[in-house]
Amino acid sequence: MTKQRLQEKLVDFQREIINLSQELQAKEQAFQDGEDYLLLELMLVLDAFENIFSHLEDQAETFDKSVRRAFKSFTRIQNKIIRILEERGVEQIAFPDGKAVVGLCKVVETQAVEGRDEGEIISIVRHGYRHGERVLRPAEVITVAN
User: Which pick of 3, 86, 111, 129 has the fewest CB atoms within 10 Å?
Assistant: First the structure.
């Protein structure tokens, strides 16, 4: 082979490497997007369980035996989903100091409350989740505004 032919081959190989690297990156991104979508769908199921439990919690003592058993079964399903998420490195966003943090939460409502600091979380409307350093879904919160 001539020197020119070898250079052409080298250029062709470099182009192919670049194309393959771009394809791999696109496939990795598509996989990540698909995984994120699935995780977000599981979070919606957790939200549904939370809504059911919050509405039924006060009435739990009035349930008969079969309804209490069903309630426990639903709780086990909810816990299983939480474990699945945790096994994949997804964790619920916590606010240990009780303050809203930009990027980790979305303020959906503010209320004036005497004796509490501005930005303090009154309640979490919808839990947020993160996967490592990435926020999959910010928490939706109600905060104090004076």
Answer: 3
